Amino acid sequence: MSTVLTMATTSSPPEGDTPPMARSEEPASPDAHAVSRLAVVAAWTFVIILPLIGLVSLLLRSTLDPEWTSPRLHVVLFLGVGGGAFVLAYIAGQAADRRGDARVFLLSLAFLVTGGFLAVHALGTPDVLVNHDLPGFKVAIPVGLLIAALFACASAFVDVRPGFAHAVVRHRHGLRWSVVVAMAVWVILTFLELPPVSASTTEGAGAALRTFAALGAAIYAVAALRYVAVFRARTTLLPASVIACLVLLAQAMVGSALLGERTWHASWWEWHGLIVTAYVVILYAARRQWRDERFRQLYLASTRERSEEVSVLFADLVEFTTFAEQNDPAEVASMLSTYYSVATPLIARRFGGEVEKFIGDAIMATFNGRGDQPDHAVRAARAGLELQRQIDALANAHPGWPRLRVGVNTGVAQVREMGGPGFLTYAIVGDTINVGSRLEGRAPVGGVLVGAETYRRLPPEAEVEPRLGLEVKGKRTPVDAYVLRSMSS
User: What Å distances lie between residue 342 and 134, 336, 339, 347, 383, CA to CA?
Assistant: First the structure.
């Protein structure tokens, strides 16, 4: 297991191996550098002047406001933009779930809300899919943009109190489902024409909507200023696009309500266009990022490096080298594939762990790497027991297949971003990880050996066999451990 320990703590490619993206990169010519610089300057110019163009065009609408009625274009346009916002919500949500980043998660909720209400607004276009005006559909954009503004502003200030970011990550699934349910309720109330949705008037009319618009515009402006302050020293394309998006959405709220509107006139299309442009900017910037980490530039500092209490599970096949020597390579590969196909979903789906890596015949998995599993020690211990049960069944069905040793340990570790474009990992390192690896090496064949801190967190009915004062490699002082026999389900 010394190899396992080395790879688990360094999280770097094997010596002499070049990351796939790095292999394909060729030295850029001076002309290519010039073109690249020109593209960057053009992109920055576009992002900076776009909000100003939108503001000027809105102010001039009183002198140039022709009518153009096109319900079908309205449906297609907003369904398309709503779909784009959903795509952004999905990829940002995936990144937030994978890395446990509260800022990107809150932005994903803002994208989700905007996309949902844009789609609702589009579906409610009269004379296309419905025969008459439904107030809930018509006011969907101001309401949706206001709710999205709250999430966007929360993302801008989420780093002020670390406890808030931790709570957001811990409750992210509930928050996401709350947003989905709220949008579904809005659609149902709209179709049934029930209050309070049935009392809504047309977009931009009514004191309530004007108040919502003013509040939303102010919230977007505050969020944009906060993003400027946070990223002023490293304002790359993606943060700049977020700032531009927030400014454009603030202007859209001004255009939809505070400045009044005339349906199907140029001013009406104008503020719709601001919303479209806001999300086109974000989609373009996200598309330009490294695919595996599109939102990395927005991650909180605590995402890139933080201390976290975790439980780590190491599992290793006993006498695998002998098995590999005595069997055909195809048989060895088939055994490993079967082993991993059982272990991976068991750890990840059933018990919520994170499979960090496969290392030959070994697996390293962590629990609570994102700080959202207060019962991580119990999860890891139960995963170890169930893993042993299922691998034991496989070994019984295939005589000669190796059996498993499992070690579980709990404690504080450091989660840290390592690498760069082409190879990036968020490694979990520290003495907790090292001891977990050593416990696996001292575990009995077919058994689960847990550290003292893991044992302390198990339910009272857990059946264990003490192994106190174990000497483990690399530790000056002995460690207490316990062979876990059973736990209540």
Answer: 52, 10, 5, 9, 12
Question: Which position has the token pair 């954009």?
Answer: 141
CB 389 within 8 A of CB 404: no
Task: Tell me where in the chain the CATH 1.20.1070 domain(s) lie.
Answer: 38-299
Contact call for residues 189 and 120 (beta carbons, < 8 A)? no
**Residue 447 pLDDT exceeds 90:** yes
- Other CB atoms within 10 Å distance of the CB of residue 473: 12
Residue 480 phi/psi, 5-degree rounding, is -90, 140
Phi, psi (degrees; rounded to nearest 5) at 481 = -145, 170
Cis status of the peptide bond prior to 196, with omega within 30 of 0: yes
In this predicted structure, the answer to whether residue 482 has a pLDDT above a threshold of 90 is yes
Compute the average pLDDT of residues 440-467: 95
3-state secondary structure of 398: coil
Q: What three-state secondary structure class fits 81?
A: helix
Residue pLDDT, tens place only, 92-103: 999 999 889 999
Question: Residue 103, class by beta-carbon neighbours within 10 Å (0-12 exposed, 13-18 middle, 19+ buried)?
Answer: buried
Contact 220, 249 (CB under 8 A): yes
Q: Which two tokens stand for residue 88?
A: 């952004």
Measuring CA to CA, which residue among 309, 314, 377, 311 is closest to residue 2?
314
| CA–CA distances in Å: residue 289 to residues 55, 173, 422 | 29, 26, 12
Q: Are 98 and 125 in contact (CB under 8 A)?
A: no
State both tokens at 277: 């442009």
Asked if CATH classification 3.80.10 holds for the domain at 38-299, the reply, yes or no, is no
**What angle separates helix 2-10 from helix 431-442, to the nearest 10 degrees?**
160
Query: Residue with structure tokens 């010394």?
Result: 2
Concatenated DSSP letters of 159-228: TSSHHHHHHHHHTHHHHHHHHHHHHHHHHHHHHHT-TTGGG--STT-SHHHHHHHHHHHHHHHHHHHHHH
**Can you say whether residue 313 is alpha, beta or left, with left for phi > 0 and alpha for psi between -120 and 50 degrees?**
beta
Instruction: Report yes or no: 353 and 383 within 8 Å, Cβ to Cβ.
Output: yes
Where are the CATH 3.30.70.1230 domain residues in the chain?
A: 302-486
Could you give the 3-state DSSP secondary structure of residue 399? coil
Instruction: Report the alpha-carbon distance of residue 261 to residue 266 in Å, rounded.
Output: 9
Which fold, 302-486?
Answer: Alpha-Beta Plaits (3.30.70)
- Pair of tokens at residue 145: 């943009």
Q: How far is CA 259 from the centre of its chain?
A: 37
**What's this model's pTM, rounded to 2 decimal places?**
0.76
Identify the bridge partners of residue 367 per DSSP, sorted by sequence position: 311
Read off the tokens for 274: 């601001």
Which two three-digit tokens encode residue 255?
Answer: 């255009």
> With contact defined as beta carbons under 8 Å apart, do 176 and 107 qualify?
no
